[in-house]
Amino acid sequence: MSTPFRFTRPPSPRSATGRVAATYEQLSRDFGVDRPPTFVVLSSAPELLTAAWALTRESLIAGAGSRTGRELVALGVSLANQCPFCVDAHTVLLHATGDHALAERLARGERPASEEHARLLDWGRRTRVPGAALEPYPFPRAELPAYLGTAFAFHFVNRIVSALVTENLLPAGAQRFRAVRSVAGRSLAATVRRTAVPGASLSLVDGTGDAPAWAGGSPVGPAYVALRHAATLGAGLLSEDELTLVRQTMTSWDGAHPSLAHAAFPDRAEWPGARLALLAALAPYRITGEDVAAWRRPEHTDHCLVHLVAYGAFAAVDRIERALTARPASETV
């Protein structure tokens, strides 16, 4: 039986208990989709599932401002990261907001008719480049936590999906048909247009460390800290030499999409763990079964694989976030 997952077999959501079960309940209620593969793929490592959901919920779903605006940013991020699954998902979600004409313009690869919408989409795209000038913001400064949180959430989610989930949002690529996109969006409309109470996901997560200043004391901050904490646990799967290689490579990354021949990707026979982590960070859609097999040993469970990919994915988020916060304080708060 085919599944939407690559290289991993997540536990059945029906067997979920505790925080994982509570996360699925929130997903169904606040996201409007039961057991979406975007999050189920992380369930081999529950701490990643709950944290990724928390950041997504507190920024995209419960954040301040326009849901259409945040969907445009998430779509811009997904386009920049070349994640077709997520591009299709956010196109459907734009239908759910009621912005049907906008969703279809974007599905055709056209620029939004509204300059405000175009600026939001472009802003999302630009966040892939560490240190890119993001001001003036195409939204009120008070909404910065929601918009930055959305961008960071999907820089992470895009990479997880590109690495570990197949490309089709719906069976047989049905999302490519306008009528299907519209119907799918309308089925989510009541959920998407309902106001979500901020902070409801924070009881599901653990995390240590100070929230970033850009989060402005909002629930986005603790959710970001929780994801950072969970994702960086994957560093324990790499040797010190591999960690050094990953960190050095990420320090110089400029947002480009390197080819497999690029020196950023070490040989899988010599550095299989570092190669997987760097592929997850820079070009997760290039991960192959050979890459996974070269790294995997009998002791490497799906929990380990998901954590290693998450470590690489968050290395990219961290590079982007650090470059942002290295700018003068007056530009980031």
What features would you describe in this structure?
The structure is a single chain. The chain contains 15 helices and no strands. The chain is mainly α. α3 crosses α8, α4 (67-80) crosses α7 and α12 (272-282) packs across α14. It has helices at residues 18-31, 37-40, 46-61, 67-80, 84-97, 100-107, 115-126, 144-164, 178-192, 220-232, 240-251, 272-282, 289-295, 302-325, 329-332. Helices cover 57% and strands 0% of the residues.
List the helices and strands and how they pair.
Blueprint lengths: L17 H14 L5 H4 L5 H16 L5 H14 L3 H14 L2 H8 L7 H12 L17 H21 L13 H15 L27 H13 L7 H12 L20 H11 L6 H7 L6 H24 L3 H4 L1
Percent helix among the residues? 55-70%
Instruction: Let me know the average pLDDT.
Output: 94
Oligomer: single chain
Shape: globular
Q: Cα-atom Rg, whole angstroms?
A: 19 Å
- Number of helical regions: 15
Point out poorly predicted stretches: 329-333
* Percent in strands: under 5%
The arrangement of helices and strands along the chain is: HHHHHHHHHHHHHHH
